[in-house]
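pinned: reference chain
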Amino acid sequence: MESEQKQVQTLTAKDVQKALISLTVLIVSIAAIILMSRYSSKKSTKKYPQAVAAMQEMIDGGIVHKVQTSGHRVYISPLAWQMANVEEKEVMAFVAAQYCADRNKNDSIRVTVYDYQSGRELASFSELWGFTLAN
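pinned: its structure tokens
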């Protein structure tokens, strides 16, 4: 029993480290997107190809666990979401919306972000309404 608890703690520590590294890589790789994502009064269907690569990094890094591109839904690690500040959360949602639009081959740039473990809605992003954190 004690060895099982140690193993779980070790895996959790590894998961945290992996999530931190992935989140850092993500933030650095899409820093330019933050400036471009200021969509306040413009209705634009501009695509950002670097968002697809950034999304793949989030998937490979264990930040994103599941993507339903046709439903514009992304299921994210609750640990990664908790560790991120609001700007990082906005960037993650923006990247996910771009990814879904790219995979669907359409101009509907929108996504809803869910907690992978609980299924609770965490945030949404759309070009029309912008970024919104769920209550």
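why pinned: The CA atoms of residues 6 and 29 lie 34 Å apart. Residues 2-29 form the longest helix (28 residues).
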